[in-house]
Amino acid sequence: MKYRILLFISLFFSLQIAFAQGGLLSEEDLEEEKVYTNLEKALKNPSEVFILDLSGQGLDKIPRDVGRFRKLQILKLTNNNFGELPREMTRLRNLQVLYLDSNNFNTINFDMSNPMYYGNLEKLYIGGNPLRIVPEELSQMQELVYISLSGNLSLDLNQAFIPLSAIPTLEAVDLSYLKLDTVPLEVGNVQDLKYLDLSGNPSCAWDTSFRYLAQMGSIESLILRDNKMRSLTEEVAGLKRITELDLSGNERLNINQVLRAIKPLQKIEVLRFSNCGLKELPSSIGNFPVLKELYISHNEIGSLPDEIQKLEEVEILDASFNDLMEVPSNISYMQSMEKLYLSHNPLEFLPSGISELSELEYVEIPKNSMDKTEKKNVKKYLPDAEIVFVEDDDN
After folding, report:
1. Residue 146 host element (H or E)
2. 57-64: long-range contacts, CB 8 A cutoff, minimum separation 24
3. How many CB atoms lie within 10 A of CB 393?
């Protein structure tokens, strides 16, 4: 969580500077912009196109006309048959986010002959390609913060981190689904690496990997989804700077052991245990006093422990898609709660104490299991919150 906040702040200020210099929209403004998915329609008003998504359209070549979108900041070209970048791409001086994943790139030649080419690029997705090497030109991208190499099974990781370690701004790397047997030592050459995604590497030697990551001392967000994990080795306790840990999708996770293993990590602000086959949420969840976000959706949890009241800093609780029959009344102690997700549970009522959550602004609760009286009560308890009653078959 801390890493994401710092990353957002750094991106925010870089966007503001870039806006003053070159007319870039802020992240908030981009969210309001139309996403164009049809090239012909986009070409009718190229000066109004800031986001273009040509993903999954079966294209063999990147259209040269993309160079006409001089204000383009986000370009998604995922899941096509592209194998090379046209020269016209260098005209996209405002481009900040580029998706080239799931294509047919054997090599990617970024033209960096002019410092302004790709000069604003901050996020690059090149996973799911038959790449063997990472382009050396990446070392010249002075604004790149995030790169995804996910699923590039032919990649020479020894070579990959030579250009990556030369990027002064790089903070986040996705090494998911690479069939790793351990974390590459070269990862340590990225001087200020804060975010590391190691999802989908079930054969990884985690004791050695955790020990090495602890020595690096910079990792704040560690993503370990879909690794067939049942437990965490004791070496994880050495990751003292961790603020976010994602173990979602490890369907046979021993949650009691995991919470014991990470108890020393007292800076944790975000925990994700969705799709972990959990039958319960242990009382030891109360041992994380600075926790701000807790995700436990898509499990089989039947009740929340009384100790959840100790999580007074939690702002987001997602307990949707579980077997909750009731919500404990002491949820009223969670005074920082802003968003609460309880849909797809057999809940028949919410405790009146929920009215004491003065910061609560958004709630999702099941529609089918509550009668009209209880729905009225919820609205009475939370007059200022946005309440969404979700049908059981809604996703």
Report:
1. strand 146-148
2. 61/86, 62/86, 62/89, 63/39, 64/88
3. 7
How far apart are alpha carbons 337 and 341 in whole angstroms? 11
Cα separation, 27 vs 184, whole angstroms:
33
Whole-number Å distance between alpha carbons of 267 and 269: 6
| Helix, strand, coil shares, percent, the chain, to 5 | 30, 15, 60
Two tokens, residue 386: 């946005």
Name residue 183's amino acid. V
| Amino acid sitting at position 218 | S
**Alpha-carbon separation of residue 289 from 265, 268, 310 (angstroms):** 11, 9, 7
As a whole number, mean pLDDT of residues 177-191 equals 94
The Cα 347–Cα 157 span in angstroms is 49
Instruction: Look at 8-22, 32-46, 168-182, 363-377 and tell me which has the smallest mean pLDDT.
Output: 8-22
Neighbours of 208 (CB within 10 A): 14
Q: Which pair of tokens denotes residue 56?
A: 């999954």
| Alpha-carbon gap, residue 12 to 29, rounded angstroms | 12
pTM of the model: 0.91
- By CB atoms closer than 10 A (0-12, 13-18, 19+), residue 184 is middle
Residue type for position 160: A
pLDDT score for 394: 58
Task: Give backbone dihedrals phi and psi of 387, rounded to 5 degrees, phi first.
Answer: -110, 125
SS3 for 76?
strand
CA–CA gap between residue 234 and residue 154 (Å, rounded): 32
> What's the CATH class of domain 9-174?
alpha beta
Reported residue count of the chain is 395
Report phi then psi at 381, rounded to 5.
Answer: -65, -35
Average pLDDT, the chain: 93
Cβ burial, residue 32 (10 Å; 0-12/13-18/19+): exposed
**Could you tell me how far CA 47 lies from the centroid of its own chain?**
30
Q: Which residues are registered as beta bridge partners of 386?
A: 362
DSSP string covering 322-359: S--S---GGGGG-TT--EEE--SS------GGGGG-TT
